Amino acid sequence: MEEPALLDELGLVTGLRVLDLGCGDAAIGRTLLAAGCRSYLGIDGSTEMTRAATATLAGTPGRVERMDIERFSAPPRTFDLIISRLALHYVDDLDAVLAACRHCLSPGGRLLITVVHPVITSHEARQSTEQARTDWVVDDYFHPGTRQRDWLGNTVTWHHRTIEDYVTALTRAQFAITALRECPPRPDRFNGDMAALARRQRVPLFLLLAGSRA
Ligand SMILES: C[S@@+](CC[C@H](N)C(=O)[O-])C[C@H]1O[C@@H](n2cnc3c(N)ncnc32)[C@H](O)[C@@H]1O
């Protein structure tokens, strides 16, 4: 559901040097290279995902490196666009990561991130993930910090932050915020499944923030 908002905000990528933090299988890398970006580097901490990303990028100039997002650094003006899709809520020290992003972006360069929406990361009330969810609980919203989640059969640690926390962190890292979007479901993405659309209209799942390096 965050893809339409992400693609809107990406706009033209022709000639851009792109860094993707927490790239997963790097599917977006192939899309961006096909759309004319000059280079694409994906970073991911998972061996399995970097293997998948390498396969996705085969035959393209795109590259992938296995590394924790928190350890990534590059010289000033290395990238024109940094994206991070659904990865930064796994990161503890967001300030350090945003400072590293600012450091390696060219002046006027852009940062575009999506995270699991804070109303979802705030609290988990359900016992089972086996059935489609029919209710949601927002609680402990103003208690930022770690949350253990049962996610696709594994226990993962998310870092809950409020929307205000994300905006403040970007501003503190001297990014001028250019977009804040809550990624509403787009009806044309539901193949006529109005029940699924109605369900996805109940709560936001994703938050997108974009900023430019002053
Ligand atoms: C939900 S997936 C999203 C993948 C991809 N960005 C996408 O949108 O398809 C999150 C990815 O971030 C990676 N990840 C999470 N925490 C990380 C960290 N601290 N350092 C590096 N990679 C991390 C995971 O391995 C996973 O591939």
Can you tag this structure with a few keywords?
7 helices, Rossmann fold, seven-stranded mixed sheet, 28% helix, methyltransferase, binds S-adenosylmethionine, EC 2.1.1.-, methyltransferase activity, globular, alpha/beta, 214 residues
How are the secondary structure elements laid out?
Blueprint: H1 3-10, E1 17-21, H2 27-34, E2 39-44, H3 47-57, E3 63-66, E4 79-85, H4 94-104, E5 105-116, H5 118-121, E6 145-151, E7 154-160, H6 163-172, E8 175-181, H7 194-200, E9 206-213
Parallel strand pairs: 1-2, 1-4, 2-3, 4-5
Antiparallel strand pairs: 5-9, 6-7, 8-9
Run of helices and strands: HEHEHEEHEHEEHEHE
Distance between the termini: 29 Å
For the secondary structure, the number of strands is: 9
* CATH T-level topology: Rossmann fold
Number of domains: 1
Structural features, described:
- The chain has one domain (3-117, 161-213): Rossmann fold (3-Layer(aba) Sandwich).
- The relative contact order is 0.17.
- Helices cover 28% and strands 29% of the residues.
- The chain has helices at residues 3-10, 27-34, 47-57, 94-104, 118-121, 163-172, 194-200, and strands spanning 17-21, 39-44, 63-66, 79-85, 105-116, 145-151, 154-160, 175-181, 206-213.
- The mean pLDDT is 95.
- The chain contains 7 helices and 9 strands, in the order αβαβαββαβαββαβαβ.
- By secondary structure, it is an alpha/beta fold.
- Strand 1 (17-21), helix 2 and strand 2 form a beta-alpha-beta unit.
- It is globular, with a radius of gyration of 17 Å.
- The strands form 2 sheets. It has a 7-stranded mixed beta sheet, sandwiched between helices. Strands 6-7 form a two-stranded antiparallel ribbon.
- The protein binds S-adenosylmethionine (SAM).
- S-adenosylmethionine (SAM) binds at residues 22-24, 44-46, 49, 68-70, 85-87, 90-91.
- S-adenosylmethionine binds next to loops.
